[in-house]
Amino acid sequence: MATTSDFRNGLVIEHNGELFAIVEFQHVKPGKGGAFVRTKLKNIKTGKVLPHTFNAGVKVNVQRVERRPYQFLYREGDTFHFMNTQNFEQTFIERALINAPDLLKEGQEAEIIYHVETETPLFCELPAYVILKVTYTEPGERGNTATNTLKEATVETGAVIRVPLFINIDDVIKVDTRTGEYSERVNL
Predict the structure, then answer these.
(1) By CB neighbour count within 10 A (0-12 exposed, 13-18 middle, 19+ buried), where does 29 fall?
(2) Averaged in consecutive runs of 10 residues, what is the pLDDT profile of the chain (188 residues)?
């Protein structure tokens, strides 16, 4: 058991029977009354961020989680197969636990976050940016680059991403996995 004085960003606690990660916290000592801690808690399963206020000194149940490196092997329906890069053990993750499943390509590195006590995977997190090849897009017209107009492009994983007009087939682009948006063109 820990108290509110042990709070830090990223700490995982059990609250109302569910696991939450502390996104943000602030100790407040008003001039009148007792101190309290204002927090923003992110539900591990649903991803929703909720504000919550704890009285100072309240005991909370801290949960241990581990980030383990994995490599994506292949997909079978809505089940994704991963291999631990340290002990080569394979595990299966459902599509709902992955933050950007459409941007996952074979051989790509990812981290799976495990609840240590139950050894259950909580979620799978891709790196912040992935590099993908454009397999199809409409050709852009020459000279039509003055505006920030976007067009659709299909990448090698099958995901459709909005890209600038100057992107062509076989171009390699960097995509933000948190938002699913185009970031920049990559020269290899």
Answers:
(1) exposed
(2) 86 89 90 90 86 91 90 92 92 88 91 88 89 89 68 91 88 90 88
Q: Which CATH architecture has domain 66-125?
A: Beta Barrel (2.40)
Three-state secondary structure readout of 32-48? CCCCEEEEEEEECCCCC
SS (H, E, C) 145-170: CCCCCEEEEEECCCCEEEEECCCCCC
Nearest to 135 by CA among 106, 111, 167: 167
Distance between CA 70 and CA 120 in Å, rounded? 15
Return d(Cα 184, Cα 167) in angstroms, integer.
10
User: Given this model, what pLDDT does residue 144 score?
Assistant: 59
What CATH number should be reported for the domain whose range is 129-186? 2.40.50.140
